[in-house]
């Protein structure tokens, strides 16, 4: 899947959000965080309902992640290896279904640090997304 530079930026921001969510809510189950016409959204399964204060805390954590300038590390793995990694990290509820959606003839997959199974590289470091974030709740999903 080919993305425009703006879509890559928005998709990379969703990886920063996923990292922040897992830092603040380690038991959260992540689904998808694709770019949209106005930003991106992330479906997150969590017993806790996000509040305005939670979104502020997530924005602050996202700023920390960006300042750390972590590389967006991706590892090429086989489908079986991807399944094992996803299960090991406790993210199998949604990620295994997403993995099943990927074409069968794909031999190698890229697994990002927060377990997004990705097709493209996007940006290379968290700092490239910038340092300002604005999150809102939209239909139960975190939207930016």
**Unreliable stretches:** 115-121
Q: What is the multimeric organization of the chains shown? A: single chain
Strand order of the largest sheet: 2-8-7
SSE run = HEEEHEHHEEEE
Major sheet description: 3 strands, antiparallel
Assign the structural class, choosing from mainly alpha, mainly beta, alpha/beta, alpha+beta, or little secondary structure: alpha+beta
Helix content: 25-40%
- Give the tally of β-strands: 8
What's the pLDDT, averaged over the residues? 76
State the end-to-end CA separation. 22 Å
Form type: globular
Contiguous helical run count: 4
The proportion of strand residues reads: 15-25%
Radius of gyration: 14 Å
Describe, in plain words, how this protein is organized in 3D.
The chain is an alpha+beta fold. Helices cover 40% and strands 15% of the residues. The chain has 4 helices and 8 strands. The chain has helices at residues 5-24, 52-68, 79-88, 92-101, and strands at residues 29-30, 41-42, 44-45, 74-77, 109-112, 117-118, 136-138, 141-143. The chain is globular.
């Amino acid at each position: 899947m080919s993305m425009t530079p703006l879509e890559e930026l928005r998709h990379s921001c969703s990886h920063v959000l996923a990292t922040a969510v897992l830092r603040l809510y380690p038991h959260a189950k992540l689904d998808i965080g694709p770019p949209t016409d106005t930003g991106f959204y992330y479906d997150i399964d969590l017993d806790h309902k996000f509040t305005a204060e939670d979104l502020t805390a997530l924005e602050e954590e996202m700023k920390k992640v960006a300042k750390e300038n972590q590389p967006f590390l991706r590892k090429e793995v086989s489908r079986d290896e991807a399944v094992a990694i996803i299960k090991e990290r406790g993210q199998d509820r949604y990620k295994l279904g997403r993995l099943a959606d990927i074409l069968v003839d794909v031999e190698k997959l890229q697994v990002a640090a927060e377990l997004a199974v990705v097709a493209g590289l996007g940006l290379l470091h968290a700092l490239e997304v910038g340092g300002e974030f604005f999150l809102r709740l939209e239909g139960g999903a975190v939207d930016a």
